Amino acid sequence: MHILIADDDIFFQKFYSTQLTAKGFEVEVAVDGVDALEKLHQKKPDLLILDLIMPNKDGFEVLQELQQDSTLKTVPVLIFSTLGQDSDVKHAMDIGAKGYVNKSFFDLDTLVTKINQIAES
Amino acid sequence: MSPILGQDPFFEFSSFQPFSIILIFLSLLATRQNLTYTKIMPIDLQEYKELYLQTSAKLLVEIRSDLAAYRGDPTVITTLHRNTHSLKSQSLVMGYTQIGLASKILESSFKHVKEGNLTLTHDLQKLIENTLTTIQRSLADTSGDSSEATLAECIKQIEAATEMRLLD
Predict the structure, then answer these.
(1) Which of A52, B1, B33, B82 minimizes the number of CB atoms within 10 Å of its CB?
(2) A8 and B82 in contact by Cβ < 8 A?
(3) The pTM is what?
(4) Number of domains in chain A
(5) Pairwise CB contact (< 8 Å): A109 & B40
(6) ipTM above 0.95, yes or no
(7) Chain-chain contact of B43 with A19 (C-beta, under 8 angstroms)
(8) CATH number for position A65
């Protein structure tokens, strides 16, 4: 399964791509919202893991553009949330995200389960 | 406490000791998470420690620089919000709860400044600078084998100055 991770944080890019690659996923990283949209157009992933707070274009803008794109709106999106982002997550779910995971409380098994569930739904 | 900023109903019943309760809850959560790492997923967080120390040090430098340069520019406050958000997230995943929570209160402060609900006064700026210095010291401690220092006092001071609570 091909996963695109969009997160501007170098630490999380490395952390999550290493862990998910070890689990057999093909992982690509985007460094901000603009890069994410470019990579989405170049190669449509099976799943997008999207951080909400990013430079250039944030996660909400990426979600909105995805919804307006007939080719890309079928890409399932899993939100990377963190402590204190409940209202952000709710908003993201309202505009098209399929699920969320708290990136600060890492549980690889739960993440892999969510990825598989969302990708298959 | 501010009725404008304290919108989460969770805080209505915990207003007598919000900080202590949240800190205990998060510490328990962090402890539980650490147990999960060792029992279920033997992920060696040590292999990420060097990267964490590098990225967090870089974030701190940027936050300090942006804070010193801030003259009301919305793009600067957006960057301050984003960088404190990053520092919080990576500190929590590494198990550095104190640094994570201190970064959380800074992130919330910048978010409220960005949204026009809070003014970044000179006094608040000084408090934030002091908190950044304490975080920096704590990071230096954790780069060795020392455990992180408590940052409760910094958090309490910012809570008092902003009439905000930790998880707002």
Answers:
(1) B1
(2) yes
(3) 0.81
(4) 1
(5) yes
(6) no
(7) yes
(8) 3.40.50.2300
What is the domain range of residue A86? 32-38+56-103
- Does residue A25 fall inside a structural domain? no
- Fold for the domain defined by B45-162: Four Helix Bundle (Hemerythrin (Met), subunit A) (1.20.120)
> Tokens in use for B91?
């500190």
Question: Do the domain assignments include residue A80?
Answer: yes
> Considering only CA atoms, which of B83, B76, B75, B162 is closest in space to residue B127?
B162
Q: Is B84 exposed, middle or buried (0-12, 13-18, 19+ CB in 10 A)?
A: buried
Residues 6+ apart with CB under 8 A from B47: none
CB-CB under 8 Å, B36 with A107: yes
Distance from CA of A101 to the nearest CA of B (A): 13
Q: Closest approach of chain B CAs to the CA of A112, in angstroms?
A: 13
Q: What distance in Å separates residue B44's CA from the closest CA in chain A?
A: 11
- State chain B's mean pLDDT as an integer: 79
Smallest CA-to-CA distance from A53 within A28, A78, A72, A79 is with A79
Place of tokens 């934030």: B128
Q: Which residues in chain B touch residue A108, judged by CB atoms under 8 angstroms apart?
A: 41, 43
